[in-house]
Amino acid sequence: MTGLLPPLAAVRAFEAAARLLNFTEAAQALGMSQAAVSYQIKTLEERLGVPLFHRTGRRVELTSQGQALAPVIIRAFDEMRTGFANLRADTASVLTISCTQSFAHLWLAPRIGQFQMLQPDLAVRIHTSDQLVDFARDQIDVAIRGGGGSWPGSDAELLIRNRVAPLCSPDFLARHSPIETAADLLALPRLSPNDAWWEAWFKAMGIATEAGEGPPALALDSQVLEGRAAMAGQGFAILTPWFWRREIEAGLLVEPVPSNVTEIMNYWVAYPHANRNLPRIKQFRDWIRGEFARERDD
């Protein structure tokens, strides 16, 4: 015989029969017919060139060759069963969430403790990335993403439509008043002026602009940094007011030019279609959907 392993189906049948010393019980354990178990064992014996069982009526006994092989195979299958059981236990008890840095800092981090209290046996791992993830490659259970809601192989549920608006600090507003129309912002410092959200907002307000138009300003790489800079009086930041509700309510940020501009990249909770019924995914999906619904009603 070459160094290639025998067919796994045959080895599996031998393991069950050697462990139970009964072909009928082995067939029941494997969900096969007794004839199928007998066939697989015969295939293995022919492959090995030695008999593995003595058949005496309804009873079977291991031959000397079978007795030598059985402990090795049974132990190997026991280790595989243990490995798969541990893997299922580990993955069932860990929920991995992927989201952007801004979403993690501004919305998820202050609230994820509530979910953890509701699911004390479930460990939560947060993976922050501004890039789209591959669920299988990156071992991600659910992702919170901005977009159109269509990702191949994934289910997605809309959480909120992404309204964007220029926000600034009260001090900045006082220093640059009066600010009454969207056109007034063109001459004022705007954080990350090349951000596509600025162009979309001005266009929705009926104003044509060119990238970078206006006074020189800081260019930052996340909504978190832009919002903090705006609160420090560094200029206008184009933000998602939903994520800055606390700061707006506290008077740290103001929206001088009221608008209702909805950006096309809305926020969704997405997960692999094949995993949609996993308990940990259903628990998180139901929780975050409920949180957004409750906050919309506040």
Entry summary:
The protein is an alpha/beta fold. It has helices at residues 8-20, 23-30, 34-48, 64-92, 101-118, 170-176, 196-204, 223-231, 245-249, 279-297, and strands at 53-56, 59-62, 94-99, 123-128, 142-147, 154-167, 237-239, 261-272.
Write up this protein.
With 298 residues, the chain is an alpha/beta fold. Helix content is 44%, strand content 18%. The chain is built from ten helices and eight strands. The chain has helices spanning 8-20, 23-30, 34-48, 64-92, 101-118, 170-176, 196-204, 223-231, 245-249, 279-297, and strands at residues 53-56, 59-62, 94-99, 123-128, 142-147, 154-167, 237-239, 261-272. Helix 1 (8-20) crosses helix 2 and helix 2 packs across helix 3 (34-48). Keywords: DNA-binding, Transcription, Transcription regulation. InterPro entries: LysR-type_TF_proteobact-type, LysR_HTH_N, LysR_subst-bd, WH-like_DNA-bd_sf, WH_DNA-bd_sf.
